[in-house]
# Entry
Amino acid sequence: MATNASIGIFSSASLAVEYVDSLLPENPLQEPFKNAWNYMLNNYTKFQIATWGSLIVHEALYFLFCLPGFLFQFIPYMKKYKIQKDKPESLENQWKCFKVLLFNHFCIQLPLICGTYYFTEYFNIPYDWERMPRWSMLFLRCLGCAIIEDTWHYFLHRLLHHKRIYKYIHKVHHEFQAPFGMEAEYAHPLETLILGTGFFIGIVLLCDHVILLWAWVAFRLMETIDVHSGYDLPFNPLNLIPFYAGSRHHDFHHMNFIGNYASTFTWWDRIFGTDSQFNAYTEKMKKLGKKTE
# Structure
């Protein structure tokens, strides 16, 4: 019954998004994107696209999204948006983080990426332009992947904080009390596999085209680098997403070590009360701010 209800909700949401999409004008970038996509299909094999294409997308987007936060530390004006102003990033820590990232990306994640082609073949995931989903359906499926991943992340992340196992695995990620964007995937190899599983569950359930793999990678990287950035930017478009946790929510987790376990949304922390210390801290800061005005 629960499965049928979930399918019914997803179908209703799909119809609603399709209706709204039908009212919008055509995407002016669709034709050049179509040409580029067909050029890729005509010049590379499915294995090359799924494997090396996915690796390039991941690496290019990861460091592209990290770049603004890296540059902010050299711009005095941006210091007012830094959350933990008393803990600036050090180039030594960032270099250490970069070396661990390279190991995780090429020794842990690359072997997993090599399985992408076989996944698409086994489940008959299409590559062709004719079956490319419209942007509205792509957005809806990415949202579904985010909800699934956030649920997995909350419960497994909370488990990794258990006192009996914390020091063996998750402590690595908490080495930096004041996070910075590049630290998003700085973790013990086992944590990369455990929490990374949540990323793939949505793909297994919802993928209907290889483009969803890359769209979901883009959204997930953008989100996790944002919440680890250490900066709370007032013009951040991600803050428009309902229930979006944001950088202050996760920054407190690194500063406090307890609570705020969710990756993207706030509802699991609210339901289980694991945001109580964060809420108390936020109220305290507001009161201090009013006193100093």
Observations:
- DSSP finds eleven helices and no strands in the chain.
- Residues 181 and 229 are 4 Å apart (CA to CA).
- The chain has a mean pLDDT of 90.
- The longest helix spans residues 46-72.
